Batch of 2 targets.
Target 1
Amino acid sequence: MLPTPDLSHLKRQDYEHIYEPAEDTFLFLDAFEDEALFLKELQPKISLEIGSGSGCVTAFVAKILGESNCLKFCTDINPRATRATKRTAKHNQVSVEIIETHLISGLLPRLQGQFDLIYFNPPYVLTPSEEVGSNSVEAAWAGGIDGREVIDELLPYIKCLLSSIGVFYMVVINENKPDEIRNIMRQDGFDSSIVKTRLAGREKLFILKFVRATL
Ligand SMILES: C[S@@+](CC[C@H](N)C(=O)[O-])C[C@H]1O[C@@H](n2cnc3c(N)ncnc32)[C@H](O)[C@@H]1O
């Protein structure tokens, strides 16, 4: 069992401004642990976490990939989160390129088709649309209608970003309508599966995995 990354450098005051790792984060870690062999065999050359928050997931995935030559990118819209990710990477001796940006802005067209691994624990909570789009801690959860507004903005870009062998993982809850998301991605040429699911309080969490459909 791989240890959870060391986040002892992040204090209560930090979590007033960035997402504190919670059930969804830990389910994501568990899913990546289950996928470790697959990921090692995939040997990703370039990876991307969208919305890295504390940096916990990226540090964990980096440990799975070990000493491989994977260039790891993270983005977050919240400047405090990008700083926290940087500190977490340093604290856990992993190297990551961190970009403060909206979703994947600035990565296309230069990195089109280059990512072998993309993962996102998005803001998925159902909220009024007006709450979506901040760059503070609310960005961690505010997902708008059906909790899908940020998710739906990203989905069309996945086919442009992923390489031919690329894989995309995403956290969702039942209210996000996972089957509908899987259908949208199917139309973009992706097969999908549920790699992990867990009931956390009233939330039913899923980890979805997407790979390009084989002809
Ligand atoms: C649920 S938190 C997940 C944080 C961390 N990855 C984890 O699993 O603990 C969602 C993260 O996405 C970021 N985020 C929200 N909207 C974003 C956007 N449009 N572009 C980039 N990051 C965004 C938030 O700032 C937050 O850090």
Target 2
Amino acid sequence: MTTAVSSLLATLPGDRYTDPENFRREQERIFETAWFCAVRSADLDKPGAYRTVQVGRESVLITRNRRGGLRAFLNVCRHRGARLCTEQAGQVRRSLQCPYHAWTYDLDGALTAAPNLTRMPDVDRASYGLHTVELREWLGYAWVCLAAEPPSFEETVMDGVAERLGGDEVIGHYGIESLALGRRRTYDVAANWKLIVENFMECYHCATIHPELTEVLPEFADGFAAQYYTGHGPAFADEAEGFTVDGGAGFARLPGVPDTHDRRYYALTIRPQVFVNLVPDHVIVHRMIPLAQDRTVVECDWLYAPEVVASGADVSHSVELFHRVNLQDFDACERTQPAMASRAYRKGGVLVPSEHHIGDFHTWVTEQLADPD
Ligand code: FES
Ligand SMILES: [Fe+2]
């Protein structure tokens, strides 16, 4: 009798999804070390706009300064450590004032005023600015890195995108940085972030839980995800006019998308916390914000040509397709999460051949957590 054991790979063991200490290590060695896609640049639309985002164990404050540039800081007052901005988003005129004793910082993080400052010569303004965080803009998003010496953005972010899409130039076809936000949905998912990544990477589940998606992308019914291959985009069904919930027409093809990429769907994971979905008339970007070993907030943006959004066109048919996919996927992840703590999953499960590429993700995570030699 032959067995199929050789075609199976082990998953991670269950405690890697449930252990708070393992999650703390992931925060330190992954989310506080890698480039983290924090906010959409256009959400900070004018000087004084700010957002706060949880990155690993830190709250990061991102502002637009008077000159129109983006800056990032640790959201911690230099006086006695109060959270400087307690809201997720806001708008100030020209400075950020701590709600505790009113130390005041300009939009570049410099300490500009404090009660009785002139009578406290030891408080040197230049020494008590906010701690800055490295920030890089790409694809219309602000990516931040908490590492003292950030890894190369080109090598750890951009090269991976080019490799998955089969060329440096492919992501540029979609002009993502100049698209406009058509819709945003935020999902609070009771699952470990790695379950969400693994789920996004495979399509073995597509035939079971994604009836609308497999209708538009019939190849997905076979269980092999776009991410199983390099540079491959499944074709739309012949009868599908667009990437919409009912197969109805979408919008005009984005101007840079070549014929080779028309009527096709591409997807990629940017480690550690971003998914990008590319179709001819729109782009969907997911950003995960892992908050606990069993809780991950996912912000999902549907991006369209600026003229589509400006015209007030109804984007709900395309939004609805991937919104349903998201709900179906996150529901599956939430059903999996409690079972990670079961004795039945102590040693983990198995990856079938169409899931083998998930093993690379597991290897990457394990490497990040390993102690340096
Ligand atoms: S803690 Fe911010 S001003 Fe005192
Ligand atoms: Fe899915």
